[in-house]
Amino acid sequence: MSNVCVVIGVGPDNGEALVRRFCDEGYQVAMLARSEDYLARLADELPNANAFVCDVTDLDSVPSVFADIEQELGAASVLLYNAGGGVFKNAEAASLADFEANWRINVAALVAATQAVLPQLRQHDRASIVITSASAALRGRANTAPFASAKAAQRSLAQSLARQLGPERIHVANVILDGVVDLPRTREAMPDQPDDFFIQPAAVAEAVWMLTQQAPSAWTFELDLRPFGETW
Q1: What InterPro entries does the annotation carry (predicted)?
Q2: What is the pTM of this model?
Q3: How many domains does the chain divide into?
């Protein structure tokens, strides 16, 4: 049986780094994102990367995408949920639609993906679900009301899944990123910051890979990743 990893939320940042890391380990990687052109370019570059165009906030479409993945690549043993989004407003300024959009991408779509992938994960002796989170899951600042409340709900969902699925040897881990990810747009916005100010996507991917390799007797549920200079 081939090793298959599903990465949801593939863009030119942590998502791409996750794809590259698992391709390097010989996995067949199913890449899910909305941008067909971007996925096609990455699939052309990486022989083990396979494009599946999908907007996971279209919840009804998620089961069929996972069925396609299993048919084309085999049963997944790893799900990396890297999709996320945020509306940064206070509770008075944010609309109910803002709150709903944050909940849909951070919580509802994670539920849909988990329900769709579990029959595949259960075909393996060991499997993993790793969720990319943010420090907003632990604290709600004044202007992060929609985002922080959704991320806090996502963290509680991850904890519930970890307790449910652990006895089945399905490791659920939540990775909290606390800092600014190194991207062209963040470099442009912060031109005076030194290299070590930024979170490196390749380093995030390495940490996620490590989580999927942990022995069940010493699983990590939550992992904080931040540059050494980040205030916390």
Answers
A1: NAD(P)-bd_dom_sf (IPR036291), SDR_fam (IPR002347)
A2: 0.96
A3: 1
